[in-house]
């Protein structure tokens, strides 16, 4: 944790990825944005985060570090989950080790909120890939309470808690890439996979290639301000478009 805190003070971009127990509630194809948010909220509120990956870069795109935090609270024998947990096991996840040696989620959240978000929220830009669930789990973790009802309240809470958030999948779609393309395939197309070491479906590795993909799109001319606060799947209700007619609440809301 001390290394994460140290790098936060000099970082501008923080890519984030989470691993979680899957989906208890499935969203049908073509669902409305409100339905997409409702299903995400029900899933996130019903389950526990398993792993958080964070990768830090400074404003010039210089790598500062990449970390993976395993949390101790999830127990596959007792907590709700679905078949994607097997994918995590196949990728090297050890739930017994997490339970024994993992971080306390509430302790991590308190320290991170107080020592990273409060002093540096105005400067840090958060990077995700198809990040609605990642951000949902992060906000629930950091605030220690269920997500708000309604996507507008959620988007305002995201802004109040995290600040600027970018979804690389939305940026990718804007650049004309096939929208069915996943993170690893995009990283291969952008030729950034060789700069990363790790295993797919591990949050640290996925956060690293998310950061590399974002920086490559940015270098190739993607204007990041145009993508601020817009999540793939909720793209018609991005923060910048909504805030003109919706008053956001305070950090404690």
UniProtKB/TrEMBL annotation:
Keyword field: Cytoplasm, Exonuclease, Hydrolase, Metal-binding, Nuclease, Nucleus, RNA-binding, Transcription, Transcription regulation
One GO cellular component term noted in the UniProt record for this chain: cytoplasm
Catalysed reactions, semicolon-separated: Exonucleolytic cleavage of poly(A) to 5'-AMP
Molecular function via GO: metal ion binding; poly(A)-specific ribonuclease activity; RNA binding
Enzyme Commission code: 3.1.13.4
Cofactor: a divalent metal cation
Location relative to the cell: Cytoplasm; Nucleus
Pfam short name (any one): CAF1
InterPro entries: CNOT7/CNOT8/Pop2, RNase_CAF1, RNaseH-like_sf, RNaseH_sf
Quaternary state and interactors: Component of the CCR4-NOT complex, at least composed of CRR4 and CAF1 proteins.
Membership in a protein family: Belongs to the CAF1 family.
Functional summary from the UniProt entry: Ubiquitous transcription factor required for a diverse set of processes. It is a component of the CCR4 complex involved in the control of gene expression.
Name of the protein described by the UniProt record: poly(A)-specific ribonuclease
